Amino acid sequence: MNATGPRRRWWPRSVRARTALAAASAAAVILVGIGWWVHHDVYRESTQIAEGQAQAQFRALVDQVEEGVVPVRRSTVPYEVVATDRRGAVAYGGGMEEFDPGTRHVLPAPPKAELPAPPDDESSGWGYTTIPTRMPARPDSEPGDRFGKDGGTYLVMYHDVRADELSSDRVAALGVAADAQLRVYVVVLPHAAEDIAETITEATDRLLLRAGLVSLVLIAAVAYFAVRIALRPVEAIRVLTASVTASDPRERVTVPATGHEITALATTINTTLQRLDNAAAQQRRFVADAAHELRSPLTTLLASLEVALAYPERTDWPAAVTTASRQTRRLHALAEDLLLLARLDTRTPMAGRDTVDLAALASRLTEQYPLTEGGLTLTCDSTAPAPAHGNPDECERLLRNLIDNAARHAAHRIQITVRNQDGWVDLTVHDDGPGVPTEDAERIFERFVRLDDARSRDHGGTGLGLAIARDLAHRHRGTLTLTPRTLGACFQLRLPQAPTPAEE
């Protein structure tokens, strides 16, 4: 397999640079869109200006013809004046000479005028007609000509003037018959609109380009420094959290008073650091308690063995061996409990489908449990099977720990009750001992916690039984709590009820 190194990416790593680049890219897209719109809008306006200029020139030509004046050839727009029954054009200019219309007009002549003339419609006012017209091809065209070699199709405006409505002097000046009809043509060249548009758009494009480049630089700079200022609290949080260690997570970050996302981040980090601090403190307390619990049996065992070795002839060896065996069993039990707690801390809740009948399990443990205390009775009250999802061995360990705890504190009686209630299996272990103060109802489930009265009466307990029992209950998606009672202590275990085979 060929080893491949890390690919180089053009995208910057810095959040500030990324934000500035993203803002500049978005602004560039917007500015390009605005430039495109302005360019096309300027072109449209230029076309309208060119058409307006052509229309103004057209009206001036019509006025000259109606006044009997032959227009001059010099014109900014191509035009031609033709008449009925006349081979050549009355007047032309503005580039129409490229077609050599002196002998024959280029644009079609109008039909003869109607006689008599139709009445004028004063409400309609002056008007003209616009039609697209195909210009003839010219084999001798030159590059500078307004019209191409193939002529092309152009927009043409025209207006008809009746000669019989003019005076005889004006008709004679125009050189047409008295009954002729004249038609004034003006060709709207797209080159004129393009020339105007090119002149305007070049200036506009240069202005937009300069403004766009300046805007992109300003937007990128503003975005860069705005993000830099916004990320200052994040940098402060990073510096503080970098100094946090697992053994001393006491540092806390400053929560900004602005109420934005950085505030939520700082609050979350402080909460996380507090959890780490609590976990570290709990771990230190657990290690200290474990060392303390291990020291007591080890000290007793070591002292017993050293005395026996120092005075072998006066040692009661059976008693010494009994003491060593008892302390070794205590160490073994403590080690087993510590290993079990370590496994429970790293395991997920139960997801299996094993079923345990808690009623049958409680009855069996009641019959098999060895009661060493004189006069102590253990009874079980169950009315029906109580199936629950769980591991049989872990459920037995849980219930045995509860019974062990009750046996160490009970005066005369321990009562186990098992009931099915609303989809849950309720199991209670009630003893008639001194009970637990209300303020210690949760503390007794902590590891290595034993109340003063329990320590004076405890015979070999490790202080981990109730902690293991609660962890096993949580692992089986249940709860273990201490319920208030007038006499003694009552522990209530609740596990989800499993369906019976008939219900499945």
From TrEMBL:
Q: What is its EC number?
A: 2.7.13.3
Molecular-function GO terms, alphabetical: phosphorelay sensor kinase activity
List all membrane-crossing ranges: 20-38, 207-227
Q: Does the keyword Protein transport apply?
A: no
Q: Which UniProt keywords apply?
A: Kinase, Membrane, Phosphoprotein, Transferase, Transmembrane, Transmembrane helix, Two-component regulatory system
Where in or outside the cell it occurs: the entry states: Cell membrane
Q: What is this protein called?
A: histidine kinase
Biological source species: Streptomyces bingchenggensis (strain BCW-1)
Q: What is the lineage of its organism?
A: Bacteria, Bacillati, Actinomycetota, Actinomycetes, Kitasatosporales
